[in-house]
């Protein structure tokens, strides 16, 4: 299956990608731990079935020094002992916010309280923004039929200001 469109080769698409990347920099530069960001991004991408984004975040986790065990267990994190309580709170928020269309009631008060217990205001804002942006990125990639398997860490670094 071939991608339907290459955003960076299209004038409007290139402008969009650059601005999208710039907003992502706010999240990446926040104090929300990098590994938490990548674990959450990977889990959201798994739920949404986005091979392109699973590829990106699996490789970014490896690049950041994450162990294969923790990366491989993200899909079954609830039944795993290798995640911290803050990571578990972030993953719960990510799942509840991602599964809105599955008749999920949204982010529960209990989940919100767990997140707030482990993350300060800036980290919480970064986490909420990450969940929203990752779901958006998954949808863009799926609509355009972006395929996993070709991502190289850092390949988008020149697409931001």
Automatic annotation (TrEMBL):
**Which PANTHER family does UniProt cross-reference here?**
4-CARBOXYMUCONOLACTONE DECARBOXYLASE FAMILY PROTEIN (AFU_ORTHOLOGUE AFUA_6G11590), BLL7811 PROTEIN
Recorded hits in InterPro entries, A to Z, give: AhpD-like, AhpD_core, CMD-like
Record-linked Gene3D superfamilies: AhpD-like
Q: Output the superkingdom of the source species.
A: Bacteria
Organism name: Kibdelosporangium lantanae
Entries under Pfam families matching the protein = CMD (PF02627)
Q: What is this protein called?
A: Carboxymuconolactone decarboxylase family protein
Carboxymuconolactone decarboxylase-like domain: which residues?
Answer: 16-96
């Amino acid at each position: 299956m071939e991608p339907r469109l290459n955003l960076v080769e299209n004038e409007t698409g290139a402008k969009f990608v650059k601005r999208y990347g710039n907003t992502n920099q706010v999240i990446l530069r926040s104090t929300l731990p990098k590994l938490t960001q990548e674990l959450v991004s990977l889990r959201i991408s798994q739920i949404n079935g986005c091979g392109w984004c699973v590829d990106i975040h699996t490789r970014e986790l490896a690049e950041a020094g994450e162990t294969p065990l923790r990366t491989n267990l993200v899909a079954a994190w609830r039944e795993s002992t290798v995640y911290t309580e803050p990571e578990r709170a972030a993953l719960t928020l990510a799942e509840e916010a991602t599964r809105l269309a599955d008749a999920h009631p949204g982010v529960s008060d209990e989940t919100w309280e767990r997140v707030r217990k482990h993350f300060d205001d800036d980290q919480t804002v970064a986490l909420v923004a990450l969940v929203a942006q990752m779901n958006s990125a998954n949808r863009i990639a799926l609509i355009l039929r972006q395929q996993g398997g070709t991502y190289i860490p850092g390949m988008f670094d020149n697409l931001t200001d």
